[in-house]
Each structure stands twice: as C-alpha cells, then as structure tokens.
Amino acid sequence: MGCEGYTSLAPVYERLGEQIDYAAWADFIENCFDQYLPKRPSLVLDLACGTGRMTRELAGRGYDMIGVDGSAEMLSEACQKERGGILYLLQDMRSFELYGTVGAVTCCLDSVNYLLTEKDLQTCFSLVHNYLDPGGLFLFDVNTPYKFAHIYGQNAYILEDTLGKGKNARNIYCGWQNCFDEATGICDFDLSLFEEQPDGSYLRTAEHQQERCYPMETLKAVLGKTGFEILGEFADFKFSAPEKTTERWYFAARAIKP
User: Fold this and answer.
1) What residues contact 253, with CB distance under 8 A and at least 6 apart?
2) Which CATH superfamily is domain 147-212 in?
3) DSSP class of residue 218?
4) Does this model's pTM top 0.85?
5) Burial track 21-35 (b if 16+ CB lie within 10 A, e otherwise)
6) How do 43-47 and 102-107 pair as beta strands?
7) Engineering a disulfide at 246: which of 80, 142, 232, 235 sits with its beta carbon 3.0 to 4.6 angstroms away?
C-alpha cells in the first residue's frame, strides 16, 4: 500500500504534479531535522516514495536514502531516474522490512491517507517506530477533513499537460471524479487517463483509488499508542498552526525508545 494503485499514471505522475515544490518541502524537512534532532541523520527512509521525486531531492542533499513503495510501476519509474546510490524496495507500507534502523522516516503527499483502517494506520506507525533510531524523527502529512469535504467532496477535475517536445510532443488528459462518504470517511477516486498516440487517436486507461479521512484526534492517539512523542502539527512549511480551512497537516513525531 502507498501508491499501489498508480499503474497507468506512473509514467506521467511527476509531470502531472509539476506544481509541487519539492525543494521547498525538502527545506521544511531539513528545518525539522535541525529543530528536533541533535544532528541531521545520515540514513533516511522515504516511505511510499512513488517515483522517487522526494527521495532523489533528499539524496541530492547528501542523505543516504531508502525508498519503499507498494507499486512496481512507480518504482520502475524511480529506478529509471536513479543515478546510483538509492536503495528502492517494493514493499507494502503495512509490512515493510529494513536491514536496520534509520535516523528519520519521511512519508509525503498524503500517502498515510491510503491506509484505510485504524488497524492499518497503527500497523504502519508501529513499523516506522520499530525501524527508527531512538529519538528518530517521523515526518508525514495527511489531507485534512476540510479538504475531503470541500475540495474533494463530489467534485470532478481535469488535469492536462503535454509530454515531450517538437514532433514527439503528445497531449495527456486526466479526468478525476471524487466521491467522499462522510459516514465512512472514505473517498473514492475514479481516474481516466487519455494519452495521445502517434496517429492522433487517444488511448484511455482507468484507475480506482481510495483514501481515508482521519481526524486530528485519531492521528494523535495512534501516534501515542505506537510510541511516538508528537513534536508538532503544522499547516505549511513555515510551521504555521492549522486552521479550519487548512488542506494539509504536516506532522513531526519522535520515536521514544528505552
């Protein structure tokens, strides 16, 4: 789990997400290292790493990186972009295994929301705790209840872009229909990807994904049960306090071990 549904979207995932400022996000991660750790970690796990965009960003800043993801297609893209030095592992975020402990774990882009039950959430957090050094840092983010209710809801979106240049350029369109059930907290995403072919026709592929909306209280309770000290929850990379209309919560937690 953790992007395991990204099959058709894997080759175009990074292009459709070009608006994400990974450099600013990595700056925030390093600011958390500086604020909450006695020194920056040497070995970092990027959990649910997808195509490795954040993994590569952190590797470029000098960290030894491990990337874990449940999608073979996403990891295939990550490996094609790899220039050496990153260990990628095809594993479910509820059952991953490492060779030892790491100084920090990052889990970006609402991958935690793909854990659809509190049992899965607790299992994942327990594994993260197990593979962190004593006092190691766990940094993750989630989509907020506000975003599920007001941005996702029953809304539909169209994403479009162009891949390649010149004669090799081709258009891509992604239709995205949301269906959020407030009673269960589950949001269903039905995605249709249209890729222009050399003859001008379009190839359509479809995917279905789900995310779970978790209240702040649940996330804090599960972190506490799995041995973490919560250091803060933030609305942005400036460490601002969350508000009612915040769309993403960023968590920083420390692994407490004997």
Assistant:
1) 137, 138, 139, 223, 228, 229, 230, 231
2) S-adenosyl-L-methionine-dependent methyltransferases (2.20.25.110)
3) H
4) yes
5) ebeebbebbeebbee
6) parallel
7) 235
